[in-house]
Amino acid sequence: MATVVGVCRSFRDRALSRCFPCLSDARRSLLGLKVTLVMLHLIFVGTLFLFDDDLIDKTRKEPWYTALYLSLLFATLVQYFITSSSSPGYVVDVMRAVNETNVIYQKSSVASKQPASSKNGSLIVSVEGSQSGRSLQGSIPSSWTKLVMEMYPPGTSIRSCTCSYCNVEQPPRAKHCHDCDKCVIQFDHHCVWLGTCVGRDNHCKFWWYICEETALCLWTGSLYISFLKANISRAWWKDAIMILFLVALSISLLFLLLLLLFHSYLVLTNQTTYELVRRRRIPYLRRIPERVFPFSKGVCRNLREFCCARSSIYSLESLPSPQELEEKSRPYTCLDVLTCRCG
């Protein structure tokens, strides 16, 4: 099996290198991965229409049913490409915007004493938290180093929050991705299937892609089951192929459901995969109890900020103060449930 996979992979790489000689090896691998994913969708769906005569008859009688199914397939593939081509939110981009705003503001203040904006246009960097609750829009901007240090407790060494790879100051919840070779704001994980990181800027897109993929897998699996349950005489090899595909769909569906539930939990509690898995290794999370979610603002606000986050606004979260942590660690009350408190 490993030999067959290796031969197929080498054949794919040679074909892509001939068709796209100007692309690097990493880009060719990513392109091959995307082509493979699209082909898998088309094979699983195409097999249904090739073998299932009842589905063809139903399409003639009720075309809206097949139209909805194919629309979901199209929307899932579109969402995949949107998510894979989106930026997770890199620290270097926000740092550049802050420093540009600072320089331009200083120059304009000396020349005309009028406010200036950065070259990034509508990009706004806001800082949330008790230690530094302010926005760069409409106020005197500061340098990136000063802005980051204000998000940490007093006395924090700048060396401890500087990335040893990028040599940039990391705000809380940021992490360096070795695959992308960049620091990502609110780093969740690096998705191999997408070929990019999942961070603050594309976590919502990633969640919607998982949701659509789960719905498509569930619908496709139900069509496979309907085909196998039909009392129609047909060739045995068709049943064998459909059973193999159904087993693969069942495994994929189980994985997608678990992944969807896991990321829904992360959204509701305002956590990331990296923070949950590596909590004891992150310096500013080590001493916080497991049941306390330091960055959670309540279920309702967590959902609103997750779903309605604008790519032109980067919300950098300061570390919570001891008073805030004490407030988050107190037991739940009926009022907390009514106000959707979580954390």
UniProtKB/TrEMBL annotation:
Residues 159-278 form the Palmitoyltransferase DHHC domain. Its main location: membrane. It is found in: Endomembrane system. Keywords: Acyltransferase, Lipoprotein, Membrane, Palmitate, Transferase, Transmembrane, Transmembrane helix. GO terms for biological process: protein targeting to membrane. It catalyses: L-cysteinyl-[protein] + hexadecanoyl-CoA = S-hexadecanoyl-L-cysteinyl-[protein] + CoA. It is a multi-pass membrane protein. It is an enzyme of class 2 (transferase). The chain crosses the membrane at residues 31-51, 63-82, 206-228, 240-262. It comes from the Eukaryota. InterPro entries: Palmitoyltrfase_DHHC, PFA4/ZDH16/20/ERF2-like. One of its GO terms (cellular component) is endoplasmic reticulum. Pfam families: DHHC (PF01529). Its EC number is 2.3.1.225. GO terms for molecular function: protein-cysteine S-palmitoyltransferase activity. Belongs to the DHHC palmitoyltransferase family. The DHHC domain is required for palmitoyltransferase activity. This is S-acyltransferase. The lineage of its organism: Eukaryota, Viridiplantae, Streptophyta, Embryophyta, Tracheophyta.
